[in-house]
Amino acid sequence: VIEPPVQVAAIRAYLELEQTEDRRVAQASALALLGELLARGGEVEEGLALLQRACALSPAAQLTARRAMILLNAKHPEQALELLESIPPTQRSAYTWRALLRGHALLGQVNGALEAACGLVARERSEQARGTLASVLSQASGTADPTHLAVGALVLARVAQDHPELAAEWLTRASEAARRSPPEASERSRDLARYVLLCSTEVPRRVVTLDLASRPTATLVRARCGDAAALGQLREAADKDGLVYALARLDPDLAPSLANR
Asked: What digits encode the pLDDT tens for the residues 207-247?
């Protein structure tokens, strides 16, 4: 086993080599690793500075997420979330969604934690991810707004298709929660509640009043109703809103429009 001080020395030696275009990505990875090692050893500021240099060399979303994780470990969740939310949802890895979940949880932001858990399931779809969302949803049942509870239940229904009875139960919960969305809810919340009802009930798509606003969530609803223009705009909408990304990626009618994102 290589001791951390030896790792640090080896990486520093590598970074002293002449930088070439072919070596940029490797050097960015080395800087990131060195930054993480230093941060773990208590040198948080130097670690963050090295991660920032790594991002300048190779502006990969994963490096930004690793920088945010240092901030989370140093108990700076606000700064971490600012970094993480700068990454477009379609470029977020499971690691990034987990970091977002942790940041929102540290701040007691229940709705944000639910959104991150939904994104995690959409990206990873593992049993562990599903368990995480179910746990967050259970803990949030008395504090999250009805629309977020509805979206969480719908996501769990989408990934429970191999268990029809369980999927039907989650769909019922989703529908009930969406119907509790208050009239004074934000336009985004009303869009999401409308989308959940379209997916969880027998509401005919032709009777839904389409909102032509440019909001990502309004685009999601129009796409679900089969609007060709909205389907063409869905990838852009998913880049702007994490829940639009998660719901579209798990919707068999809409997922093809995201083209592997």
From this structure: 456 667 889 999 999 999 999 999 999 999 999 999 999 99
CA 231 to the chain's CA centroid = 21
- DSSP single-letter state for residue 255: G
**Distance from C-alpha of 181 to C-alpha of 148, rounded to nearest angstrom:** 9
Record the pTM. Answer: 0.80
Angle at Cα 179 formed by Cα 242 and Cα 230, nearest 5°? 45
Planar angle of CA 12, 17, 23, nearest 5 degrees: 100
Task: Answer whether 107's CB lies under 8 Å from 77's CB.
Answer: yes
The residue type of 255 is A
Q: Which of 118, 237, 242 is nearest to 170 (CA)?
A: 118
Nearest to 236 by CA among 227, 225, 248, 226: 248
Tokens for 46, please give them.
């130097």
pLDDT per position as a tens digit, 121-156: 999 999 999 999 999 999 998 899 999 999 999 999
Output the CA–CA distances (angstroms, integers) from residue 244 to 22, 26, 188, 255, in the order listed. Answer: 37, 34, 10, 11
Report the C-alpha gap between 131 and 9 in whole angstroms: 40
Q: What is the amino acid identity at position 109?
A: Q
Burial pattern 17-32, b for ≥16 Cβ within 10 A else e, equals eeeeeeeeeebbbbbb
**Gap between the Cα atoms of 96 and 241, Å rounded:** 15
